[in-house]
């Protein structure tokens, strides 16, 4: 019987550790038309949002943002059975909790449920009246990870949220006023779902998507080639997406280069060829970038052209 190494079975991959190092929370009235996706093309740039979206500003750091799903289950129980004979989902909701810090008019209106208000020079005044229905919004939460030019944006879109519970507002002399939000997300019939989740940005390369196991990304990994013909000394660096291997010798073998890339996280890459004849890279999600500034001999140092093979 064949066996497998424990660590290969685990398949640890540090590049799949995503974070929301920064966070933007935007709300909009339900009537604003939005498809739930934040990018418009394959460059991964955030598209301009429809008019009507507004930011709550920066939120409180310590509490961050909580997204708490809740599912209510039910089902028939049989006499003599140890549990339900069939489990049915009665209700699914998600509660979004965060604390806005800035006294924007939208935060004031949402938290205090303000109605009519007026402004005169040096004076703002509003009244809270009983509303016939709960305020409803759509919410877009965009996280920031990665680095400049290699940004990764994990994001969540909730097409139907309502401000059904308000947290305690505390006035103390060692902190500012804040506005605790607790929004309940519900399924939206037009959107056809409870919420949408996505990852976008220039740092979210096809290679990273393939490492996540997304079948469509695995299917579109590409083949690239470059040559170091003429180099007789020195080293070069090779970057593929967010992965960089440094200090590769001018005459490195394809096996050694393949091992360096796999050890750095590109476990699926296949490398063949040679430095002089040209290396061929298969199963890459993004185009390699070669830093040949430390190579010598021939015309080096010079830029190295990387071509995509059909």
Tell me what the CATH architecture of the largest domain is: Roll
Give the tally of structural domains: 2
Gyration radius, to the nearest Å?
27 Å
CATH class of the largest domain: Mainly Beta
Strand proportion, as a percent range, falls in: 35-45%
Measured distance between first and last alpha carbons: 40 Å
Helical segment tally? 5
What is the percent of helical residues? Answer: 10-25%
Biggest β-sheet strands, sense, barrel? 8 strands, antiparallel
H-E order: HEEEEHEEEEEEHHEEEHEEEEE
Describe the global form. extended
State the secondary-structure class. mainly beta
* CATH fold group of the largest domain: Pnp Oxidase, Chain A
Poorly predicted ranges: none
List how many beta strands DSSP finds: 18
Give average pLDDT, whole number.
89
What does this structure look like?
The protein is mainly beta and 310 residues long. It has two domains: 10-204, Pnp Oxidase, Chain A (Roll); 208-309, no CATH class. It has helices at 6-10, 105-112, 206-212, 215-219, 254-263; strands spanning 22-29, 54-55, 66-74, 88-100, 114-120, 123-128, 136-147, 150-163, 179-185, 196-200, 222-226, 233-240, 243-249, 270-274, 278-284, 289-291, 295-296, 307-309. The protein is extended, with a radius of gyration of 27 Å.
